[in-house]
Design brief:
membrane; AAA+_ATPase; 10 strands; binds adenosine-5'-triphosphate; ATP binding; single chain; P-loop_NTPase; Rossmann fold; cell membrane
Length: about 270
């Protein structure tokens, strides 16, 4: 479903600041895979997601998603297939619009049959659509279904991140990219948003890549864990291997295989 072959990108080539951020990275994901990625600061984790989403154009290599070569496809076109969440809960939803308006925008954007919104002809949700979305959002158990007319800017960081997750998955994406999407939340809220994420991903069998600085989270969730260092994929662990590992084991293995330690953020967690 996702085939990345020999992906490379160098920033500021030929200058003193030259940085090979990805060095011939190859990665294959099957349908429904939920892969967690950990690695030291500057390992290339976000760059990899940026190349997949189209925020960055790689110098070399291919990215094939669902049989289509996408490495030269514009980012806005890829966004119809790829959902993405960032660390910052303020990204991904419009603060001056209500929950309902944000959900409608996400619903029409990814739904060919509902292309009217693309042409800026806002038509509003039908009664059935509103009920469908209220039902979906009630699964978050955050009470957002009763606040459909609340402006999103008034929601907490956790509520907003959960809403963005809902917006990214209301039309099931081919691929979901999560870039430390719980890192800016307090531990209790982060846990709740992670549990919601896991439920949404598993129930809808969404192929997902999640970067996290939290090793425990990387071990606990998903069916594969990838470890990156200096622009390379250093190691990969299956669900079964992960289940037998502790956070300390991961840190020891990383230190023995890489010249670096895992990021300071990870050690502090
Ligand atoms: N737009 C850019 N211009 C120049 N250098 C960049 C750019 N984006 C990333 N880099 C560099 O590429 C390297 C990899 O960065 P990246 O953000 O992918 O790391 P990361 O593994 O996500 O790290 P962190 O855990 O600190 O977020 C870093 O040295 C970074 O400074």
């Amino acid at each position: 479903m996702l085939d990345i072959n020999n992906l490379s990108i160098t920033f500021h080539p030929g200058t003193a600041n030259e940085k090979k951020a990805l060095k011939e990275v190859s990665l294959h994901l099957d349908d429904g895979d939920f892969v967690t990625i950990i690695g030291s600061n500057g390992a290339g984790k976000s760059t990899l997601l940026n190349c997949i989403s189209g925020s960055y154009e790689s110098d070399d290599g291919t990215i094939v998603l669902d049989g289509k070569e996408i490495q030269y496809m514009k980012e806005h076109k890829r966004s119809k297939m790829i959902g993405r969440l960032f660390q910052d809960p303020l990204k991904g939803s419009a603060p001056d619009m209500t929950i309902e308006e944000n959900l409608e925008l996400a619903f029409r954007r990814g739904n060919k049959k509902n292309g009217l919104y693309d042409r800026f002809l806002k038509i509003g949700l039908t009664k059935d659509e509103r009920e469908f979305m209220k039902e979906k959002i009630s699964h978050l158990e955050l009470g957002l279904e009763d606040r459909f007319n609340t402006k999103v800017g008034l929601l907490s960081g956790g509520q907003r991140q959960a809403l963005t997750l809902m917006m990214s998955t209301i039309n099931t994406p081919t691929l979901l990219l999560l870039d430390e999407h719980t890192a800016a939340l307090d531990p209790k809220t982060a846990k709740k948003v992670m549990e919601i994420t896991d439920k949404v991903v598993n129930e809808n069998k969404i192929t997902t890549i999640m970067i996290t600085h939290n090793i425990q989270q990387a071990l606990e969730y998903g069916n594969r864990m990838i470890v990156m260092s200096e622009g390379n994929i250093l190691m990969e662990f299956s669900k079964e291997e992960k289940s037998k590992m502790s956070v300390e084991d991961v840190m020891k293995i990383y230190q023995s295989k890489s010249a670096q330690d895992l990021s300071d953020k990870m050690i502090l967690d």
